[in-house]
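Progress report, Aim 2. The chain analyzed during this reporting quarter is listed below.
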Amino acid sequence: MKRRDCLKLFAGAAAGPLMAPALITPARAANRYARFAGKTIVVNWPAHPHYDAAAQFIPEFTKLTGIKVELDKMQYMRMHDKQLLEMSKPQSDYDAIAMLGMWKTEYVKKGLLAPLEPMMANADLADPGYDLQDIVPAYLSNIGMVGGPKGYLPGPGAKLYALPFGTETSIMAYRADILDQYGFAPPQSYAELLAMVGPLHDKAKIGAVTSRGQSGHQTTHAFLLHLNPLGGRVFDDAWNPAFVSEAGIGAVDVLRTVVETGPQGIPSFGFGEMENAFLLGQAAIYIDTIAIIGDVKNPKKSRVDGKVRYALHPKGARYSAESGGFGLAIPARSQNAEAAFLFLQWITSRAQDVAIALGGGVAMRNSTLANPDVLKKYPEYSVLKEQLKHTDPDWRPIIPEWGRIDEQILGVKINEALIGSATSKAALEACVAPIVDVMKQGGYIKA
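Predicted structure tokens for the chain:
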């Protein structure tokens, strides 16, 4: 999305409050935090590399504002059910949450999130230097916007419910030393990737490509990473399943090949296991989220620092990359919503985005991606800037029913293909009827 399109992002939304400039006087700026001093906000967030990098800066927020931050940290796939429970109470125990973008429409449909526009237009709360439009547009739309086209894309009717934080874009990392040693060039296409994984595995005696593969969400994520570049879609324009296609079968076939030539155990790998296989030298290639960039340089996690290079996600029928990850939101029944908003605004600000990126987190602002200090420490961000040109905000359907489809249908059946109990085509065909039932129940397809 071009910068001029970013300015149109909220067209047709409750654009008045969101776009109206907050009138900030010096007194208001000085008193923005004063009335909240001594309050404690409870924030639910994940055990995740970006959030680990960000946590070290929270004491600075408390020193600046007097607002204490209590973190409820947990494994991210456990967060969804806990968040639903807490946010459904008459008074939520959480004042802010980190949520995956794929949960946003479900939470809004259930009335569990507070829209952010009113607070962003509140002159007593808003930071005039925040610059919402500096955030990478694909992240803002994919993670933060609800309403609009299809219910989850920017455009008429869309509203902002979350600020991106812990964003993801797929990218390829590879062991330059290993590829050079055995005479391989980094693959630029899926044809090149598939041609090299077998010989690479045989020669280097390690896994060729690491991948997620655990039954449920992790397998679906891995499938979609390949489905979109190969030219496939989950649904057609009438919400009929469209994945039993050459591209869909090809995407499962890619995963089966990755399992055959990769590190042992991929069908049980979540994100952590998949990433660790690369960081510990058990795989030569990694194709997944940019969270890898900071972790490669982390001596507590990595044995491969100085040996890794980066390139675009290989091209299939097209270049493509996910745009998603986590965002910070405020429960509708938060007891300290305004203090929580000040925390969200501060930790996603220009200055903090740079600090967190330098500390090993992931940049989500255009200004950070161009920051000389960030580029000096992480020259691989130049690859990320190029990769972002190919992001697709509609790479997955973020409808309220998606969690059920993702976790209980696609991710289960495709995993059966990975462990050899079904063919690629049979696994996908087995998903069609239950997904049609879900879409009929949701009113997308006429019964």
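The two ends are 37 Å apart (CA to CA). Residues 424-441 form the longest helix (18 residues). These observations will guide the mutagenesis work planned for the next reporting period.
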